[in-house]
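Just wondering, does anyone understand these tokens?
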Amino acid sequence: MAIILSNKIKEPESTGLYLDDGWDYSKYYYAGYGMFSAGLSVGLTNIASGVSVGIAGSSCAIADAQDASLFVKILIVEIFASALGIFGIIVGIIQSNACEFPTFALNN
């Protein structure tokens, strides 16, 4: 996800400490917050996926020690828990598609 987000950032044509008049600052805010929300959603869903896989894996090991026939059933639950991370990456890619930084000033 970091590679996708880093490819979205473009350098403006005018080089200087401040941007000239005529720039669309709201588009900068939209792109910046869009990239922030994409990274945040991917990070939080992967944390949730890791915690849920850990809990499901722990219960899978305990259940397998008590009854071997429950292993496949709990393993399926663990696979669904790991799918949360994949869904988060898909949502992050969709969110980052709308992020485009302007590279030139608007015509007045």
About this structure: Residues 25-66 form the longest helix (42 residues). The chain has a mean pLDDT of 83.
